[in-house]
Amino acid sequence: MATTVGAPTARDRVADPPARTVPARRLGADRWRDPRLAVGVLLVAASVVLGVRVVEAADDTVTVWSARSDVSAGTVLTDADLVATQVHFAGGDEARLYLSAEAAPPSGVALGHDLRAGELLAASSLQPSSAATAELPLAVPDGSIPADLAPGDHVDVWVASEATGAAGGATGTATQVLSDVSIVSLDTADTALGGGAATRVLVALDDAAVAGLDETLATLASGAPVLVRRGG
């Protein structure tokens, strides 16, 4: 006898099991006390502070002249011997010992000692070229010298003095005492000259200037020197 198989009844169906819901886990207070998390936060903070200091240090750099290659003592410097280099000095006073690249490179002066490639050019390392036979120090009052004057520049030296006229009024005179002399070094400092600041300037003298030095010194004693930079 044949048996007819019909559609399954509701009794025959097996119900699917209900889906299980996984409860969300919250980060407990103990997790925030994890030392690894604290170390990570400290590392991030340290890297930020270090980055800020690096940027601040970069802003404190100054540009000075350094040797492009090895230069022997006695060499008269030219532009080809020097290259501008950015340097970060620990102290502001230290930067004054070297020649700033904001001014033109020194020319017409010689090295007093050997300079290796990359070595910074100190003002004290310069000396007059072989054409000069003497050096004359001058105390130049503030305002009587070009602000960007640098070793190697050439100047005329004038003396400005005041005298009392017949009517009792002050009259000024100016006398040129040196022509086309080379600047060897400069140093700004407070002096007793007028109670203000003055720049100590060392100039190189050739034989002709040395021959008339007595008259030059006498004129310098009558007033204050004024430096006029020569072009070219």
How would you explain this protein's 3D organization?
The protein has 232 residues and is α+β, with helices and mostly antiparallel strands. It folds into two domains: 36-130, Antifreeze-like/N-acetylneuraminic acid synthase C-terminal domain (Type Iii Antifreeze Protein Isoform Hplc 12); 131-232. 20% of the residues lie in helices and 31% in strands. The protein is built from five helices and nine strands; from the N terminus they run ααββαββββββααβ. It has helices at 29-32, 35-59, 92-95, 207-211, 213-220; strands at 62-67, 82-87, 109-111, 126-128, 134-141, 154-164, 170-190, 197-205, 224-229. The chain has a five-stranded antiparallel β-sheet. A two-stranded antiparallel sheet has the order 1-2. The chain has a two-stranded antiparallel ribbon with strand order 3-4. A hairpin with a 6-residue loop joins strand 7 and strand 8. The longest helix is centred in the N-terminal third of the chain and has 25 residues, at 35-59.
Characteristics:
232 residues, alpha+beta, Type Iii Antifreeze Protein Isoform Hplc 12, two-stranded antiparallel sheet, 5 helices, 9 strands, 20% helix
Summarize the structure.
The chain is elongated. It is of the alpha+beta class.
List the helices and strands and how they pair.
Blueprint: H1 29-32, H2 35-59, E1 62-67, E2 82-87, H3 92-95, E3 109-111, E4 126-128, E5 134-141, E6 154-164, E7 170-190, E8 197-205, H4 207-211, H5 213-220, E9 224-229
Antiparallel strand pairs: 1-2, 3-4, 5-8, 6-7, 6-9, 7-8
